[in-house]
Each structure stands twice: as structure tokens, then as C-alpha cells.
Design goal:
single chain, about 525 residues, alpha+beta, 8-stranded mixed beta sheet, 28 strands
């Protein structure tokens, strides 16, 4: 009896599976393998078919489960399950990143398995309740939407640059100055952090990169420039939850753009880093604007940092006693050379291998070190035989922001050594009128110090050497010492006399044309 009933059941199930197989066989192949529509395309199609967008709600019952302390918007936007980088959603309860929000996607599976129901689209900033598939509209989520992709109006940018603004860390409610936060040291990235802190506080660049539309609307875009703009917007974000920013995505783009020259875990000279970065940014700006403006129009990098130098080169014979014998000039050339940075040589007589106390270190005033550019002092090199070449330098156009590179490291007979001379620097009203032409001095030749990159310790990271930045906070009129994540106030006296490696000066504008 049991066998007959079992045979009847088996025949019924066999007939059922036969019908299913027949149905699958009769289905068109194009429908069977139809790819999943992207979310944005699906929403647009639904809006066209139904006449309204997908449903929205303002009374989501799960908003109380959001935990802002777990949200890290510096992480690479990649699914933690499938490792894909498109259509990424962040769980607002645990901070994890997942792909998609439809049925069967990692985000949907996570929401059902952990009862975490509120997610934000990292591409659009929309907040969704994943299981019920509705968009959440609530004013209390504005800070989260802003952190996904910070955007600023012209008034907000002006206020950030002119008025003091205070942010609060969400973990302990401690205060920090908006725009003056630390950068993570990913591994031997203190030279990069020190140089970036200088650029991140140059007012024209801040204004340029905070204007989101400047590079969003351009057809020819640079990933390096876009990632730097994202770093600017994060640094100046008043809703920053942790009061610090990670430059990982920017350094990864820089590593790709420089074929691995600058990378995490690879120590590099900050002067080389800054010069290469300015060159790449200038090329990206010029490429992006090539089809829009005249070729003679300057980029933002050229407007801010580029100056011009007159170089007079004389080829002459070599005399035994220059004071009594007159040399014969064989050839003389005068050329005008653009520059982004000016090298400053420190005296070679103070080379030392061991660290000395600060009080015993020699000092040199910056005005004395600038004599190379007075148009009189010559630099001579031999050409072989009885000929030599002498050059003099004079500034014919002063940049709006002047970058000085100090030649602090020397390599003699294969041994690297450090010049520990302290540079005595005025913090305001540095007058360069005697080092430039009268035409250049007429537009203003006085500068105020903005930033200083300082090297302390041994020669490299293996010997305890590290770089840090002294940054002037214009909104609050005090100086900050920024060493990776550590940001503290510093006495201006320590800034005026230090082992400067890079300095950035801002010119006092005296004409309407420059303003």
C-alpha cells in the first residue's frame, strides 16, 4: 500500500518538474539572461512609467538606530563582501560598506541578517530604508549627507576663510578648528602630510577646490585633481565626526600618476613631493581648460605660485687675480625663467653629523640668505680650459604666494649630512624690494609668513627624523604645530627661529589688478 502511494507521489512530482523544465526551455534567452538595471536607471524608468518617483517617507521608525560614531567616510568605497566599487551603500548603524540595495544584494542581506535597516548611497547621498525600499527624507540626516560629498556655497567658503569656525568630535565632544585638523600617517607619509598641510591652507586654492562645480562640469577630468579636491572638502568640513582626515585615496591616485614614485610606506623628500605635485596639478588644470580658454590664460597654480626670474649669464676667461685683473666677457645672455619655487642655500661650513643643543646651533637671517637674488652676486662654474660661466639672478615678477626651498641636506663623497643652521625669519613684512626689479617692487614686495615645514631629528625615518608643519591660523591669529594627527598651539618665537625646510609666504596686495 505504501509503495503504491509513494509511486503516485513520485509521478506527481515528476510531472511538476517536467512542466517547470518545459517552461524554462520555452522562455526567450534574452529575458532569461537580462542584466540587473542600475538603481538610478530603475528609478528613472519607474518615474516615467508610473508618473512619480519611488516612495519617500519622513517618518522612518529606524532613525534612532543610526550610530554616527561608527561612520568613517575616509574609507575606500568598496563592498566588504564582493569588493566591487560601484553602487556602494554604507550601513548607518555599523558603518560597513555593501553593494546594491535590491533583493539578494549584500546590503539587503546585511539588513535582514543584522536588523540594520538604514543605509546611505555613497554616490548620491540618498538615505534608504533597505528592507522596505523607501527613501528617507529627514532634516536630521543633513550632516550625514554632507559628509558623503561635502559641498559649499560661496558664502560658506568666504565664512570658512575669514571667520573662526569650531567643530566637535562626536566621540568625546572635544573641539577643533575647522580646516586645521590632522592627517593620518599611513606609513612613512609624514613628508607628504607636511607638504599637504601647506597647500591645504593656501586661500586661493581652498576657494578653488571647495567650489565643487569647478571640476564636475569639465569634460576632461583628472583623477589626481579630483581626489585632491575631495581632500580639500574633507579638511574644511565643519561636520567632521573625528576631527581628522586620511589622505589614503589621494596618495593612491598620486602613486598611479607618478608610476609609484610616491606611495604609502615609501619615504620621499617633501621638496620633491611638493614640486612634482604642483607640476602635475598645473598640467591637469591646463589640459582640462584647453578647449575652453585661450592658451595664454594662466591656471590657478600659475596664478598663485608662478613668478619670473631674470638670469644673466656671462661666459668669460679665467683670471688669476680677479681684484686686479679685468676679465674679458666672451658672451652674455639674458633670459627670463618662470619658477614655482626658489632655492635658498645654507652655508656649508656648519655641516654636522651629531645633534646639538638648540642654543649652540648657528643662525642665519633670511635676508642674508636672499642675497643670491640681488642681481649682483655671481655664481661661477668652470667650463674647462681657460673659460668660466658666471650667472646673476634678479626677480622680475613676484608671485602671490612665494615658496622657498632650503638646501638643508648635502651629499659629500656618498655620505648624506644635514645642515643644522637655524633660519631667523620675520613673521610679517618680509621686504624683497632689493631683490627684484623696480617694476616688480611697485606692485608690492612685502610678504607675511603662512607655513613652515620643519625637519627634526636624524637624517631619515630610520634615524628618528621626521617632518612637521608650523601653520598660521589667520581666522584666530595664532600659530599651530601640525605633526600628523597631533595639532597644538605653538609660540611664534619657535616659528621665527627654526630648522626650516620649506616656507610659504603670502604677498601683501597693494594694487586692484592683483586683487
Amino acid at each position: 500500500m505504501k509503495t503504491k502511494i509513494g509511486n503516485k507521489c513520485n509521478r506527481k512530482w515528476s510531472f511538476f518538474f517536467f512542466q517547470v523544465r518545459k517552461l524554462r526551455t520555452d522562455m526567450p534567452k534574452d529575458k532569461e539572461k537580462k542584466p540587473r538595471e542600475p538603481t538610478a536607471v530603475a528609478n528613472k524608468r519607474l518615474k516615467q512609467e508610473v508618473g512619480h518617483s519611488v516612495k519617500e517617507r519622513t517618518d522612518c521608525p529606524y532613525l534612532s538606530t543610526i550610530s554616527r560614531g561608527f561612520l568613517n567616510f575616509d574609507n575606500e568605497r568598496k563592498c566588504s563582501v564582493t569588493l566591487v566599487t560601484n553602487n556602494i551603500y554604507m550601513c548607518l548603524v555599523c558603518g560597513e560598506l555593501f553593494h546594491g540595495r535590491g533583493l539578494g544584494t549584500p546590503a539587503h542581506t546585511h539588513s535582514l541578517g543584522t536588523e540594520h535597516y538604514v543605509f546611505v548611497d555613497t554616490g548620491t547621498g540618498q538615505v534608504w530604508c533597505i528592507p522596505d525600499m523607501y527613501e528617507v527624507r529627514d532634516d536630521s540626516l543633513s550632516d550625514i549627507v554632507h559628509n558623503v560629498d561635502p559641498c559649499y556655497s560661496d558664502k560658506q567658503i568666504t565664512d570658512l576663510l575669514t571667520k573662526p569656525s569650531t567643530g566637535y568630535r562626536i566621540t568625546d565632544r572635544s573641539e577643533f578648528s575647522v580646516g586645521y585638523v590632522g592627517l593620518n600617517n599611513l606609513k612613512q607619509t609624514d613628508p607628504y602630510n607636511a607638504s599637504l598641510q601647506m597647500l591645504l591652507h593656501v586661500s586661493p586654492l581652498v576657494k578653488h577646490f571647495l567650489q565643487h562645480f569647478v571640476y564636475q562640469k569639465e569634460s576632461k577630468r583628472s583623477h589626481l585633481r579630483d581626489s585632491l579636491g575631495e581632500l580639500y572638502r574633507k579638511i574644511w568640513n565643519p561636520f567632521n565626526y573625528v576631527g581628522q582626515v586620511s589622505p589614503r585615496s589621494f596618495i593612491q591616485e598620486l602613486e598611479s600618476a607618478t608610476a609609484g614614485q610616491f606611495a604609502v610606506g615609501k619615504w620621499e623628500d617633501p621638496q620633491v613631493f611638493l614640486h612634482r605635485l604642483l607640476t602635475l596639478l598645473n598640467m591637469a588644470e591646463r589640459k582640462a581648460r584647453k578647449s575652453k580658454v585661450n592658451k595664454n590664460t594662466k591656471t590657478i597654480i600659475e596664478e598663485v605660485f608662478q613668478g619670473e626670474m631674470s638670469v644673466t649669464t656671462r661666459t668669460h676667461n679665467v683670471v688669476d687675480n680677479p681684484e686686479t685683473e679685468q676679465r674679458e666677457v666672451l658672451e652674455e645672455k639674458v633670459s627670463t625663467v618662470p619658477f614655482f619655487t626658489l632655492p635658498i642655500e645654507l652655508p656649508k661650513s656648519v655641516l654636522s653629523q651629531s645633534e646639538e643643543s638648540r642654543n649652540s646651533l648657528p643662525q642665519e637671517h633670511l635676508q642674508v640668505l636672499f642675497e643670491k637674488y640681488n642681481g649682483v652676486k655671481e655664481r661661477t662654474k668652470g667650463l674647462g680650459g681657460n673659460k668660466a660661466e658666471s650667472s646673476t639672478y634678479k626677480i622680475v615678477k613676484l608671485p602671490r604666494y612665494l615658496i622657498l626651498f632650503f638646501d638643508r641636506f648635502k651629499k659629500d663623497f656618498g655620505t648624506m649630512s644635514k645642515i643644522r643652521t637655524l633660519v631667523n625669519t620675520p613673521l610679517t613684512n618680509l621686504d624683497l624690494s632689493e631683490f627684484c626689479t623696480p617694476e616688480a617692487a611697485a606692485t608690492g614686495a612685502k610678504y607675511d609668513l603662512c607655513s613652515v615645514v620643519v625637519h627634526e631629528g636624524g637624517l631619515g625615518s630610520s634615524e628618528g627624523g621626521f617632518f612637521k608643519t608650523y601653520q598660521h591660523c589667520k581666522q584666530r591669529s595664532y600659530w599651530l604645530e601640525m605633526e600628523d594627527l597631533r595639532v597644538t598651539k605653538i609660540d611664534p618665537i619657535d616659528v621665527s627661529v627654526c630648522q626650516a625646510y620649506i616656507q610659504v609666504w603670502e604677498r601683501k596686495i597693494t594694487t586692484e589688478e592683483d586683487s
